[in-house]
Amino acid sequence: MTYDNLLTHTEEGVCTITINRPSKLNALNRKTISELHKAFKEANEDAACKVIIVTGTGEKAFVAGADISEFADFSVSQGEQLAAEGQAKLFDFVAHLETPVIAAVNGFALGGGLELAMAAHFRVASDNAKMGLPETSLGVIPGYGGTQRLPQLVGKGRAFEMIMTAQMVDATQALQYGLVNHVVAQEELLDFTVALAKKIMKNSSVAIAAAIEAVNAGFEDGENGYEEEITQFGKCFGTADFQEGTQAFLEKRKANFPGQ
Known about the structure:
The chain is built from ten helices and ten strands. It has helices at residues 30-45, 76-95, 112-119, 146-154, 156-165, 171-177, 189-201, 205-217, 225-236, 240-250, and strands at residues 6-11, 14-19, 51-56, 61-63, 101-105, 108-110, 122-126, 130-132, 169-170, 182-184. The longest helix is centred in the first third of the chain and has 20 residues, at 76-95.
């Protein structure tokens, strides 16, 4: 599928989705959010895609925030609708995909950009990356899951400080906080992230999807993560991947998972 604001590419099981609005520092407008939903859905349904990487065009910005001009004059009800639709269409959608999603943060990840990165299953940052939730400086709060996912990743106190001060953290601080898993040189970012994706691809895609369900359940109201783990653990025993994995172990060979 062709997109106006995205570039997509699949090679050797890795689908890369690149937000391509360099003149706007890859800011998220409603059209880009809609296109991202379609691109992630398409990748998740593509049997050839085993891992998804999301990144931004250029070396300046992953996503430098939302396109403020689109909602500057919104009413209360319109603001609520904006957040609800955005969370459902993109941010929660990404967090619950069966296919692993890695955010390759290449520069500024602010506001909705950081929220998108946090919705991914984990993050790798370039050494020039800067991250923050500056919404309180505009008289609003993060609306795409930022007030929930940031405390889960960095702790309540640090999340409050980042949100209340509206200040950015650099890549080194982000690594120290646990906001990103790795920091690498800008020119090594995609190669490093693809290498991580290939390590993931060696394992059972069915088991990884089950792990995503179980981990997510532990962070959701009304869900019992331990019970979901038991359920997903049991389901694995009925899969072809489990049969292959256990047989390969007993036969002292590498597993060739069918993904079923």
